[in-house]
Write a structure and sequence with these properties.
This protein is of the alpha/beta class and 313 residues long. The protein is 40% helix and 14% strand. It starts with a helix and ends in a 16-residue tail after the last helix.
Length: 313
């Protein structure tokens, strides 16, 4: 009789637990939030030497890692990428019902697919930008982010050493800022060829391992795509403590530079034109020009999202 009574009690308790789980989901949610996630507490976000902590119109640095709305969500992703962390987690607020859906929309199905994350990537130092990003969310609102960076540590060391050599040989402290940028702009163009072969065969397996879309490829191979030109220019500008970020159009990327309280466009790629004769040219059509001049010079390939890159207009 005792065993039968014990069985009946156990069965009743099990049914009660099942009932609670099925019809009162807030109870296990409360348990996880309070006792497992400690009311959505996150670890402290450490920052590396390349974190800029710069606010822009599109995204701003935050120290609150419980997303309240879509803008806050974008700010959290920006803060994580800007910091240089390769792994971090945050949470969705209970009242932000669309959080998980908004996170899912941010995840590109391929590394090449454009998304809001790709635009956010343009606002961080190139050494903290991602090559690929993995995002996992669970039903309790925890979002885990894992980042594979675009540049490896040995590549960063190589770039910094090469960059310092170029600066030491070509730029002096008494130069004006504009002159320093011009000297570096000229050096890069005179010592780099646009990688037309890869540009014409982007999907070919022969070119998949090429690094000419990065600053490393530009310095090592002396060939580059627009990503290589814009990255090396951004890295150089950051060394001079000049605020800047990269602007993306559908098939192109270039730099936006803050000088004398004004944002100016700089496109070293298009100042290094490809000619039918193979002749190396150096022009200044896209050297520190305002938005109006950019539109007058090329209103097609430099057409960008004005809501995302609003400083650029």
């Amino acid at each position: 009789m005792k065993s039968k009574k014990k069985f009946i009690i156990s069965t009743i308790l099990l049914l009660i637990i099942i009932f609670i789980l099925m019809y009162y989901k807030e109870i296990p949610h409360y348990f996880v939030k309070t006792f497992l996630y400690h009311n959505y507490a996150t670890e402290e976000l450490e920052k590396n030497d390349y974190a800029k902590e710069q606010d822009y119109n599109f995204v701003q640095i935050t120290d609150d890692f419980v997303a309240k709305d879509k803008q806050h969500l974008l700010n959290i992703f920006y803060t994580i990428l800007d910091s240089g962390n390769t792994s971090f987690y945050f949470y969705c607020d209970d009242n932000y019902l669309e959080c998980k859906n908004d996170v899912d929309k941010l995840i590109p199905s391929t590394n090449e697919e454009e998304s809001a994350l790709a635009d956010i990537n343009n606002f961080v130092h190139p050494f903290n930008s991602y090559k690929s990003i993995n995002i996992i969310s669970n039903s309790f609102g925890k979002i885990t982010v894992t980042v594979e960076k675009q540049y490896k540590e040995e590549e960063i060391e190589k770039i910094n050493n090469e960059l310092q050599t170029i600066i030491n040989k070509n730029i002096s402290e008494d130069m004006k800022i504009n002159d320093k940028i011009k000297v570096f702009h000229d050096y890069i163009i005179n010592n780099t060829a646009y990688d037309i072969d890869r540009a014409n065969n982007m999907t070919s397996s022969e070119y998949q391992t090429s690094s000419t879309h990065t600053a490393y490829g530009l310095l090592v191979d002396k060939k580059a795509l627009c990503g290589g030109y814009s990255d090396i220019m951004s890295i150089f500008l950051y060394q001079l403590d000049i605020p800047n970020f990269r602007v993306s159009a559908d098939n192109h990327v270039w730099n936006l530079v803050f000088l004398n309280d004004t944002w100016l466009h700089l496109d070293a790629t298009w100042d290094d034109p490809v000619t039918n004769t193979g002749e190396q040219l150096l022009i200044y059509d896209y050297f520190l020009i305002p938005y109006k001049k950019l539109l007058e010079t090329d209103p097609v390939e430099h057409k960008f999202n004005l809501e995302i890159y609003s400083e650029a207009k």
